Amino acid sequence: MEITFLGVGEAFDENLPNTSMLVRTKYQDKPVTVLLDCGYSVPPKFWQLGLHVETVDGIWISHFHADHAFGLPALLVRFWEEKRTTDLHILGQKGIESFVLRCLDLAYPNFLPRLRFSLRFMEVEPGEPVAALGLSWKTAVNDHSQRDLALRLDAEGKSVFYSGDGRPTSATRALAEGVHLIVHEAFHLSKDTPGHETIAGCIEMAIATRAKRLALVHIQRQVRRERFDEIKELANSVKNLEVLIPEPGDRVTL
Ligand SMILES: [Zn+2]
Ligand SMILES: [Zn+2]
Q: What spacing in Å lies between the alpha carbon of 10 and ligand 1's midpoint?
């Protein structure tokens, strides 16, 4: 399993694109590619990869905030421009279908019938794991201002956990147990912010859940800019856990 970070930023970062990543794995010897979240500043980073138009098999949307979902209409319409014909899976919490169709219709009115590929929506609610695209999809509710589902993907004996936005809950901790990589939003260094986790809190969670690696994303722009050395120092001081602070374009192989 390989993870490529397209963006690692929060909602309003002037430099870093919104947090988003590509997960690549294999199913029956065929490549499978899934995009996790697609905020409004993600599509250009995605297009820069120069992937073939049919490459992405599925897109996961953690919650309905714009920095995690509003890039979808641009992505879908460019797929149309580039003549995609393969079905595209879109997975998320209950309401994902009406949310995405509303977004598309607001951005490009009446465009849906023009797509030459079908959108196949799937809800992945907590306690109702889904097998799709050769991956196992499991979710748990995080503590965020809007309902957010943390996701765990398992394939080929490897696993990744992605928080979306929000503070861990007992359910997301259970979901993350023993994963190869936790990608967690870490909005602040240590300041308590409702609906968000701190860097210190993410480290504590990753150790408690016995994860192998932790990637800190969605760090508040000013904190990341002005206190990067402190963050690095804290990350490097952790024993028995590799803590990454990825940049856009970075890849992690599990
Ligand atoms: Zn966000
Ligand atoms: Zn959010």
A: 5
